[in-house]
Amino acid sequence: MKLLTNILSALLLVSVAEYAFVSCDDDSSKVYEEPKKSLNKNQNGTDIVPEATRLEFPRLKGTGNIVIVHHTSDKEDVNISIEWDVQKKAQRWTAYQMHRGQSGQAGRYNIFDEDPELPASARVSNSQSYYSGSGFTRGHICASADRQYSVEANRQTYFYTNIQPQYYMFNAGNTDKYDSPWCRLEDQVRKWSRSSACEMLYVVKGGTIEDHQLLTTAKYPKGKIGDQLPIPKYFFVALLMKTNGEYKALGFWIEHDSVDHSANKLSEYAKSIDELEALTGIDFFCNLPDDIEARVQKQKAPMQWGL
Questions:
Q1: Are 225 and 89 in contact (CB under 8 A)?
Q2: Burial state string for 171-195 with b = 16 or more CB within 10 A and e = fewer than 16
Q3: N or C: which end of the chain has fewer CB within 10 A?
């Protein structure tokens, strides 16, 4: 009898163990699993600048470059960020954030100056002298009109680190009309940032500075003013908009010339971020989780942006 009792007890224990094992593998137990963290294999580190993980930052090239982050004393704190190529003595890009709260009427500071954060050894000897008589205007990358919330923020857009050579027709268009594609795109970006659909707009802008993407002319056969200051052949804009926690992205690629393109639609210059990365060699919005980055970078739908 005792032996039978022991056998029954043993069978009961085995049965309970088997049930526990099965129940742990049951679908209902997955509610207790630790949620998987979003992967981000190409995000920036913070070893160069702590702000490098902000969403507007492209992947830093790093070697041979200087990253400048301009702060202001107002609530925005970070104003614009720039990656500067020391060897080419030109900026690689300017990145910044835009939103509806950045209202103001600071006006145009209108005094161009060397960037106090850039060592003299990293820039051309005198930026003003390179532009004077060159046939090119001093073209803003982060537009002055994008930074109206304080005089301090606007002043920083006039640092030469945020300036690249642009034909007047490209920079402004027909006199007093400001109808060039570049100028109209700048205005459209501001409208997007102020729209009710926009929670935050992340902006990256710049001009091409690689040797094969310089604008060559009879006066500047090497594509450089004074054989030193690069003249971009193309200018680009990469945009990432956040709305209710969702993201969408769109790029623009505009050839730099002195031709009247006022009749051209902005949608003609639209690119997916994937396409823009192939053209520029820049990894945009690398700080997004990989799955979101892969999805938004394939998008090319100007109509979704109202174009």
A1: no
A2: bbbeeeeebbbbbbbbebbbebbee
A3: N
Please answer whether residues 154 and 240 qualify as being in contact, where contact means their C-beta atoms are separated by less than 8 angstroms: no
**Interior/surface letters 41-74, b for 16+ CB within 10 angstroms, e for the rest:** eebbeeeebebbebebbbbbeeeebbbbbbebee
- The model's pTM: 0.86
Cβ atoms of residues 213 and 233 within 8 Å: yes
Contact 59, 171 (CB under 8 A): no
Q: How many CA atoms lie within 13 A of 261 on its CB side?
A: 24
The H or E element that residue 6 is part of is helix 2-24
pLDDT of residue 62: 77
Beta strands in the chain (DSSP E): 65-71, 78-85, 90-98, 137-140, 163-166, 200-207, 224-225, 229-230, 234-243, 246-255, 270-271
φ and ψ at 99, to 5 degrees? -160, 170
Residues 189 and 99: their CA atoms lie apart, in Å, by 10
Q: Is 35 exposed, middle or buried (0-12, 13-18, 19+ CB in 10 A)?
A: exposed
pLDDT at 24 over 60: no
User: What angle in degrees, to the nearest 10, is found between the helix axes of 273-280 and 290-297?
Assistant: 90
Residue with tokens 């920036």: 44
DSSP label at residue 167: -
Distance of CA 97 to the CA centre of its chain: 9
Q: Which pair of tokens denotes residue 259?
A: 């031709």
* Torsion sign (Cα): 116, 96, 211, 130: negative
Q: In the structure, what pLDDT confidence band is assigned to residue 39 with cuts at 50, 70 and 90? A: confident
CA 15 distance to own-chain centroid: 61
